[in-house]
Amino acid sequence: MKLITQKIFIFLNLALFCSCGSKPTNTLETAAEKKPNILFIVVDDLRPELNFYGANHINSPSLDKLAGESLIFERAYCNIPVCGASRASLLTGARPTRKRFINAHIKKDEDYPEAISLPMLLKQNGYKTISNGKIYHYQNDDAEAWDEIWHPKSLWDYALAESQEIRKNTHRGLPFEAAKVHDSVYRDGKTALKVIQDLNKLKEANQPFFLTMGLSKPHLPFTAPQKYWDLYDRDKIELPESYIQPESTPRYAFHNFGELRQYENIPKKGDLPNALAKELIHGYYACVSYIDAQIGLVLDELKRLDLEDDTIVILWGDHGWNLGDHKLWSKHVTFETALRTPLIIKVPGKTKGLKTNAITEFIDVYPSLAELTSIEIPDTVDGKSFVPIINRKSVEKNWAVSKFKDAVTLIKGDLFYTEWVKDDGVAYARMLFDHKTDPLELDNLSEKPQYQDKVIELSKELRQKWGKDFLTK
Fold first, then answer.
1. Rounded to an integer, what distance in angstroms lies between the CA atom of residue 400 and that of residue 465?
2. Residues contacting 167, CB < 8 A, separation 6+
3. pTM of the model
4. pLDDT digits over 361-408, tens only?
5. Does the pLDDT value for residue 5 go beyond 90?
6. What is the dihedral of CA 296, 302, 308, 313, to 10 degrees?
7. Which are the catalytic amino acids?
8. How many Å apart are CA 72 and CA 329, to the nearest integer?
9. Any bridge partners for residue 408, and if so which?
10. What protein family is recorded (predicted)?
């Protein structure tokens, strides 16, 4: 009964949205030539702590269902663990460098204006392109690539008057909120309604579409309807096994998680009290369940409109997130908890719950979607297509490179090798973890005598693979 009521509410609310953008242009494509649609779902701060990645404690039935119809990348890595840079890098297919795509506040238009972005490429090839929610960090970045840009209006994403008042009078407000409100009160609920409206509009157009759904949760603050908090028993939530900062790990690897410290009632320094840490983990889980429900509504509508068989669905989290791992919160490090991300793609007729252990980088998404839509890949793209994996073939590439500030990490096989380098490329610190024996990254091997030959080898390989323009652009 609740589901029926919610769907009725959704369709009633669709009328509240204006029909933005120009009327789609008809194409001359025949049915045989028609390009696939793309539903592009971006989730902010999503960890691969989901059932289809081996976890069993987060309630996410919609994501689980989508994964069962998709190719699941077990080893997908962002190229930089901060939202603005990660998104711009993925959407251009270009590697971050010492000066390009370096933090949350970059703009594609300023950092790499000459690159043809993925939405621009698709637009130039007959696609209707719609940006909904947070796709780039800044709403009007790469504006020419979109036929329409839409953002939800929300008062700092707090539903309760008292929370809004605290936010009004402080820098960030409370780090979490549970409110007995409808899903559409928060911005991601509004985004789901807009995407559903778009699907209904696009259904009538004889034009392929690149439709995006940028979800803001589970980014801080952890605000979600009460019913999603109620899915979890906080007494059963445990701190991570890696809740430690070993002496062997360089101090450069850690930070004071300033992103979280800006919120009210968070200590300005030191470890968090255990009760507060568990409340934050609880809030994160609630937000994942909340966005899962919004994704489910959109996927149900895609099916109801008979668009499912004509639409590629790709879902990714812009980077990982620390939930107490290494006694850290937020991203901004090169531990696997910040670099490894969820990435799944559903290609009608080709994927059905398959998994791959192939090491994949976010810059590989662009050329893969270009290949799936039979569009030539621009020269500015650094990534390599993973379409052979979709076709159940092997790929030669077995590595990834990620960076944050001075830290640059080579991921190869079970090894995670990081160097902190100066502008001239000279290293001033390093760490090496072997995930075969140390998956939690607690034993830095880089200074141990028996690993020095391996360090020299990995250091050379890192420089070969971080990109020819890494130090100069």
1. 8
2. 155, 156, 158, 173, 174
3. 0.92
4. 999 999 999 999 999 999 999 999 999 999 999 888 899 999 999 999
5. no
6. -60
7. 83, 137
8. 26
9. 403, 419
10. Belongs to the sulfatase family.
Strand partners, 225: 179
Residues of the chain with pLDDT > 90, as a percent, come to 90
DSSP state of 141: T
Contact predicate 243/62, CB 8 Å? no
Fold topology of 2-20+37-397: Alkaline Phosphatase, subunit A (3.40.720)
Cβ contact 120:136 at 8 Å: no
Q: Supply the pLDDT for residue 174.
A: 97
340-341 and 76-77 strand pairing: antiparallel
- Alpha-carbon span 73 to 362, nearest angstrom: 11
Tell me the residue ranges of DSSP E strands in 144-280. 148-150, 176-179, 209-215, 222-225
361 vs 427: CA distance, rounded Å: 24
CA dihedral 447, 448, 449, 451 (to 10 degrees): -90
Residue with tokens 């070993």: 246
Mean per-residue pLDDT of the chain: 93
The torsion region of residue 49 among left (phi > 0), alpha (psi -120 to 50) and beta comes to beta
The Cα–Cα gap between 163 and 153 comes to 17
Token pair of 179 as six digits:
């409110």
Tokens 């069993």 belong to residue: 56
Contact 354, 280 (CB under 8 A): no
d(C-alpha 169, C-alpha 186), whole Å:
20
Token digits for 222? Answer: 């952890």
Q: Which two tokens stand for residue 402?
A: 């990620």
Q: What pairing do the DSSP bridges indicate for beta strands 71-73 and 354-356?
A: parallel
Between CA 137 and CA 109 the distance in angstroms is 12
Position 71: which residue type? L
Q: Residue 337: which residues within 8 A CB-CB, separation 6 or more?
A: 47, 242, 320, 321, 322, 323, 325, 326, 328
Cα separation, 192 vs 180, in Å, equals 19
Rounded to an integer, what distance in angstroms lies between the CA atom of residue 303 and that of residue 297? 10
